[in-house]
Design brief:
70% helix, 8 helices
C-alpha cells in the first residue's frame, strides 16, 4: 500500500523504522526505553526534513507511521507508545482510530513474520494438505489484514487533512469494528503458532476501547 503515501510520508516512515530497529530487541533483557524519551527522538527526525511538504510526529500520518513501525519492531512497545500518547494528547475518535489501525498493522506484520518462520520450521509450507493449507491461509490473512489496516489509516488521514470530519466519522465506526476482528485474528494466530507464552510476553493483554466504547469523551 506504499503508493497511497507521499514521498515525504514514506521518508519519515523509513526514518522512524530505522530508529526502532536500533532499539534493543524485545527478546533481550535490556531495560526498555521510556515512551517520552523515544518520542523526543522521533520529534527530532523532522529537523532533518528537507521536503517542501514535511512530515513529522506532529502530523497524523507521521503518528500512524510511528505506531505502525514501533509495533512491527515490538508490539508491546507500539501499544505502550499509543497509550502514552493518548494520555498526553486529546485525540478525536477518527484520529485515534487511524493511530490504532497503524498499531494493528505493525502488530500483524510482526506476528506474520514470526509465525511464518515458525510455520516454515514445522514444515507447514511443504504440502497443500488441508491442515497445512489452513495455516498458510491464516498467515496470508494476517498479511492482507496488515495492508488493509494501513489503507484504512491512510483513508482517515486524507479525510481529516481535507477537513471532511463527517465522512471520517462515518468511516471510523466500520473501520473500528473491522480492527477488532483483525486484533482477534492476530492473537489467535499467535497463540496457535507461537504459543501462549510468546503471545503473553510479546502482545499486550488488552487494548484501549474504540471510540464508541468510551465514556466521558
Amino acid at each position: 500500500m506504499d503508493e497511497f503515501w507521499t514521498a515525504a510520508e514514506m521518508d519519515f516512515r523509513a526514518r522512524a523504522a530505522e530508529l526502532f530497529r536500533n532499539l534493543p530487541d524485545p527478546s533481550t533483557p535490556e531495560p526498555a526505553r521510556l515512551p517520552e524519551e523515544i518520542w523526543r527522538e522521533l520529534d527530532a527526525l523532522a529537523l532533518e526534513e528537507t521536503d517542501p511538504i514535511p512530515v513529522s510526529a506532529a502530523h497524523l500520518s507521521g503518528r500512524v507511521s510511528i505506531f505502525d513501525e514501533a509495533s512491527r519492531h515490538d508490539p508491546r512497545l507500539g501499544h505502550e507508545l499509543l497509550a502514552w500518547f493518548e494520555r498526553s494528547h486529546n485525540l478525536d475518535p477518527a484520529g485515534w482510530t487511524a493511530c490504532e489501525l497503524g498499531r494493528l498493522a505493525g502488530t500483524a506484520s510482526h506476528v506474520f513474520a514470526a509465525g511464518t518462520a515458525a510455520a516454515r520450521e514445522r514444515g507447514y509450507f511443504s504440502s497443500i494438505l488441508m491442515d497445512f493449507r489452513m495455516v498458510q491461509e491464516r498467515l496470508a490473512g494476517l498479511h492482507a489484514g496488515s495492508e488493509l489496516a494501513r489503507l484504512g489509516a491512510c483513508r482517515l488521514c486524507r479525510l481529516l487533512v481535507k477537513g471532511d470530519t463527517i465522512a471520517a466519522g462515518r468511516e471510523t465506526s466500520g473501520l473500528a469494528a473491522w480492527a477488532r476482528t483483525l486484533e482477534a485474528d492476530v492473537r489467535s494466530v499467535s497463540g496457535s503458532l507461537l504459543g501462549p507464552e510468546w503471545t503473553q510476553n510479546r502482545l499486550a493483554a488488552s487494548n484501549s476501547p474504540f471510540p464508541e466504547e468510551r465514556t466521558g469523551r
